[in-house]
Amino acid sequence: MLKINKTVNFLIYALIIFGSFYRYLRVFPGFKFLNPAPYLLMIILILFIFHHIISKRYIPNLLKEIFIICFFLTLTFIYSSIKFGLNSQLQFFSDLIFPCFLVYYISVEGEFFQDKIKKIFIIFLIISFTLSTIEFYSTNILGFNFFAFSDFWLNNDNMGNSFHASKVNYLFLGYNIRPWGILAMPQASGSIFSFLAIYFLITLKIKKNRIDLIYLTISVLGIYFSGSRTALFTLIIGLFLIYYKSKYINQNKLSTNYLLNLILVLFIIVGVIYSLLVQDFGNSSNLFLVDFKNKIIGYYSNFENIFMVLFGSGDNPNIFYSEIGLINNIIRIGFFPLILVILLVIKLINEYNKGPIIFINKKNNITLLIISNVFLFSSLHYNTFRYPTNLLFALCIGLIIYNIKPKK
């Protein structure tokens, strides 16, 4: 069993790190064969995790909702695969089904990742920032895109002629083309750096380690080069959460802590002013309200969609999805799984506030709770709940559950 656990740990670790450069690597001529690689690794991991479940015969109480959610999503996956073809549902599988298995495994066998999560974030940050910066520099300064996303998209049967150069107004740099990033979508890719910036800011507040300041700076630069309004908005939300939970993160009332809180407030003010004056959040908020009215309410009020309303549509090619990631995922998973997700979140919050429990590495758990919330906020606009960032989210949720132990 120990050898199997080591194999699973290695494969999960490798799968997450591979995601930090997977979409950049596959655009090169001759590397298109890498397209199915993550899905194959996920299937292998699910088989190992099934073996683990059968061997352990143990399901933590906090994971019952996860298993029911996974059951409903699997039914949707099977139904949609039969109706629309397996290839059309691979992203649905990797986005929403596989993370359920990952949450289970981490929540039971989390010790390895408890020690490795920061290293995973550091490696992920360095690789993704390096590639995004090369893409930005080669496209805007050298005049050609070193990573030929346009060629890949235009020659991909599943993508169609959907590639376009996305320009925004950068502070100090003016209008430039945004890098598509590790999720091949500027808005979503930029949000990853917000997620990482919040993580390293919290670790900086807790440990006052100068190297974390470097990682924080790299993360903020990643947000800047991404040109993503979604990332900026996500960062602002994360800063609010850090300020709100500051007494739990660092209870030492030192001058350095006050200084960091002051910097947080200034970041929030500057971020809000920048978003209002340079970027255009009004357009995004209007799109959200219009899409919510026309697509969520319209979709759910159509009796013909009753099965898909209840159990999810998967990636139905007949549905015109919104650019709002939250709306898309509600439609994809359906009413029952959505209710179960909400119940799981409520249960985690209640467990955290209950008296008869203890937390291992409590400060680390506060960190995971905050960045998990930040991640969910990032999905309000473009969908960030996709490989590999969904695995980072699953890793955080799994460790949160792993850290909740009954008081003896």
Q: Briefly, what is this?
A:
The chain is mainly alpha-helical and 408 residues long. 70% of the residues lie in helices and 3% in strands. It has 18 helices and 4 strands.
Task: Note the main attributes of this structure.
70% helix; two-stranded antiparallel sheet; 408 residues; two-stranded antiparallel ribbon; mainly alpha
Structural commentary:
The chain has one domain. It starts with a helix and ends with a strand. The protein is built from 18 helices and 4 strands. With 408 residues, the protein is mostly helical.
Judged by helices, strands and strand pairing, the structural class is mainly alpha
On the 0-100 scale, what is the average pLDDT? 75
Distinct helical segment count: 18
Percent of residues in helices comes to over 70%
Strand content: under 5%
- Strands ordered across the widest β-sheet: 1-2
Distance, first to last CA:
27 Å
Got a strand count?
A: 4
Secondary-structure topology with pairs:
Elements: H1 2-19, H2 22-25, H3 37-56, H4 64-84, H5 90-108, H6 111-140, H7 149-154, E1 167-170, E2 174-177, H8 186-207, H9 210-226, H10 229-244, H11 246-249, H12 255-277, H13 281-300, H14 306-311, H15 325-333, H16 335-353, E3 357-359, H17 362-378, H18 389-403, E4 404-406
Helix pairs in contact: 1-3, 1-6, 3-5, 4-5, 4-16, 5-18, 6-9, 8-9, 8-10, 8-17, 10-12, 10-17, 17-18
